[in-house]
Amino acid sequence: MISAQAARPPAPALMPARAAPRIADLVQRICKECFRPFAQKRCDQKYCTERNCRRIANQREESRAKEAYRALMAFRDKKRGAFAAMTNIADRWRREDKQREDRYRVACAEQGVEA
């Protein structure tokens, strides 16, 4: 007779945990909101922590979503000029994003940091 322990399949080998990068190994970054240099604490960090830049960026996205919703509802209700308003909003956002990206690239070049 085989015991219950002997009938169990062997336990899978444990996978080694991913080692987090050391802070000393991380490079200096430029904040995508205020364009100031900062020492990152995580390898995927985009915003500095001193000036609430992540919160500011999230608020901008939220206000854009509200504006887009209002324009879409006006278009749905067939209000005159609603489609033109939606395209104007999209054009304005594209210009703002392009200007922000250009400012970010200039800040990176000035600090000698990769974009």
Key terms:
flat, 115 residues, single chain, 50% helix
Structural write-up:
This protein has 115 residues and is mainly α. The chain has one domain. 50% of the residues lie in helices and 5% in strands. It has three helices and two strands. It has helices at residues 4-7, 53-76, 82-111, and strands spanning 28-30, 37-39. Strands 1-2 form a two-stranded antiparallel sheet. Strand 1 and strand 2 form a beta hairpin. Helix 2 runs antiparallel to helix 3 (82-111). The radius of gyration is 25 Å and the shape is flat.
Short description:
This protein is mainly alpha-helical and 115 residues long. The protein contains 3 helices and 2 strands; from the N terminus they run αββαα.
